[in-house]
Design goal:
By secondary structure, this protein is of the alpha+beta class. The protein contains 5 helices and 16 strands. It has one domain: Roll (Hypothetical protein YwqG fold), CATH 2.30.320. Bound molecules: zinc ion (2 copies). One zinc ion binds next to loops.
Amino acid sequence: MTRPRTTPPRPLDIEALFPELAAHRGTTTRLHPRPGTPTPYDSSVGGPLLWPADEPWPTCTQEHRRNKGRRIEDVHEERRIHAAAHDRALTDGERERLTALQRRHKVPDIGDTHPVPLLALAQLYARDVPNLPAPPGRDLLQVLWCPFEAHGLPHTPGVHLRWRDSEAATDAVLTNPPLPPVVGYEGLVPEPCVLHPEPGVVEYAWPELLDEEVQLRIEEWEEGLWESEEDGGEPLSYDADFAVAAGWKVGGHAYWGVTGPHPMVCSCGTPMELLLAIRPSEHGGSRSWIPLEDEVLAPTHVSVGRVGSLNVFVCPADPAHGHRTSLQG
Ligand SMILES: [Zn+2]
Ligand SMILES: [Zn+2]
């Protein structure tokens, strides 16, 4: 881990205004991904996984189209061209190259259940993320997904979780995992990022999960702020500035801004808890979450359902009970 990232203090003490919120307070670990060159021994988004060389790489065999899409190397090159030209117009040569890179390619002889290698999305060591709900004997969470938004409704990438004992996996590490020939959507291809985890960031429940009377008082407070706002700035809002921290995070409260809250209950009957929030933007709905040290809007380039968020939930009774996802986007 390199230098930390620090969430600024909230713009005001929201519990002083609404003491009932104390009962809905939670904490999350913001991951603060930043472009870098992580190793298998680092927590990362889009970095190499600590994967035993003799262990089969997981594949998706669920039935869906998988024979057409973008090439992974083209997606990375397209982003490099845009990054190089961030403060100038694209050259004619760059435009021409981008047109070629943005082509979708057909892969011959791939049926709808042909095993497609999953893409490594993230890995998190418990030493870096203290609230990671690792099962006994495991200290590393690895997240992979199928690079086609063809799983469940609405269409989401198929998320695969692997809990591992990192001590038992360090002898011979896989260096060249198989890659899918094409991906269905470029937003599922992460750029390699190192993480700067910040535990203990305070959050509150999504507004629709609060008592109705508290919701109404919060709405009145927000309306008052809108009316008194004269300089054209963005007034504070409960859901954007206080409820759910922006960006990739582990634990804490879930963002439900698109569908509204759904009960997430495990097949064993236990209410599930948020494991990981995969977010397209590190700002969320408010600039108040930009850390003190730097400002990077979308370091991972990951977005689900175009510019949506994916919440991954697990069962607190036993993470092996399987996970559920909720797409907000
Ligand atoms: Zn799939
Ligand atoms: Zn369960």
